[in-house]
Automatic annotation (TrEMBL):
It comes from the Bacteria. This is HAD family phosphatase. GO terms for molecular function: magnesium ion binding; phosphatase activity. InterPro entries: Cof (IPR000150), HAD-like_sf (IPR036412), HAD-SF_hydro_IIB (IPR006379), HAD_sf (IPR023214). One of its GO terms (cellular component) is cytosol. Signal peptide: none annotated. CDD domains: HAD_Pase. SUPFAM superfamilies: HAD-like.
Length: 289
């Protein structure tokens, strides 16, 4: 019997306009009335993830930064796993040498050293995932969404790296061309045993400490709650969800998921624009998966 449902956000719980649908929200409420706990596991930092959930009226425990942090329902930090700053400097230097845009997620929030690059990246993502949307409309939507996110802009990342009171949790690297242009970053750092490189969208790669994985964080949380992994259900769409899809008793890949992710999950649901999370929840409960 399922006791815990863990859902990814982008491309999963959120539709292509980066919002939680009423249908998904109602399905979560239905599961909770059945005594099933719900939580999200996202690559976003805490301050990036909260607005979309709050907008939908969802309050739940959260795995953020791909497993770099774990928060309880009240927003209290339970666990924290970061990357040493010497490695971060090497990563950022290499990214700059390739002319790519990057962001860093820290214990004090998400930081960017290029506001225009941030807007361009979000606009391209929204236009690509919503083909009927014009560039102008995608730009308007990007600006409205960015206003909700607590992004800190600095002139240079050294301002963040020189702050001894903060810890770096993740580096995101973006390319509007996509994975072919990002491959050089992946190849440069994938042999480092202290790091794990995943992706949550066609236009990014995410670099975390090797222990900061969603699957590890889900297992940690389930153990603390006294829940067997056989009674955990996970839902995701991309390769940063792979570790939690592999380890759960019941796992769903979204209809819009990468084919390799679908091969890992036990079941496939509809797309994120078709309330795939709700469909998975209702199926799992009604069919007693």
């Amino acid at each position: 019997m399922i006791e815990l449902i863990v859902s990814d956000m982008d491309g999963t719980l959120l539709n292509n306009k980066l919002a939680v649908s009423d249908t998904n929200r109602e399905a979560i409420e239905y599961a909770e009335r059945k005594g099933i706990k719900f939580m999200v596991a996202t690559g976003r930092g805490y301050t990036e993830a909260v607005p979309a959930l709050k907008e939908a009226g969802i309050s739940c425990p959260m795995i953020t930064v791909n497993g770099g942090q774990l928060f309880d329902e009240a927003g209290n930090l339970i666990a924290n796993i970061g990357i040493d700053k010497a490695r971060i400097r090497r990563i950022l230097d290499f990214v700059r040498s390739k002319g790519l845009y990057a962001e860093i997620v820290t214990t004090k929030g998400v930081f960017s050293d290029d506001k225009v690059g941030r807007i361009e990246t979000m606009t391209t993502l929204l236009q690509t995932t919503n083909p009927d949307t014009t560039f102008k409309m995608a730009l308007v939507l990007a600006l409205s969404r960015l206003e909700l996110l607590n992004i800190h802009y600095v002139n240079h990342f050294d301002e963040v790296l020189d702050d001894d009171s903060s810890q770096i949790l993740k580096v995101l690297v973006f390319s509007n061309i996509g994975q072919p242009e990002l491959q050089v970053i992946r190849e440069e750092f994938e042999t480092d045993e202290e790091l794990i490189i995943t992706s949550s969208f066609f236009n990014n790669i995410e670099i975390n400490h090797v222990e900061a994985q969603k699957g590890i964080a889900v297992e940690r949380f389930a153990k603390e709650m006294g829940i067997s992994m056989e009674n955990v259900m996970t839902i995701g769409d991309n390769f940063n969800d792979a570790s939690m899809l592999k380890n759960a008793g019941v796992s769903f890949a979204m209809g819009n998921a990468e084919e390799g992710v679908k091969a890992i999950a036990k079941y496939v649901t509809s797309t994120n624009n078709e309330n795939g999370v709700a469909d998975a929840i209702f199926r799992a409960i009604n069919e007693k998966l």
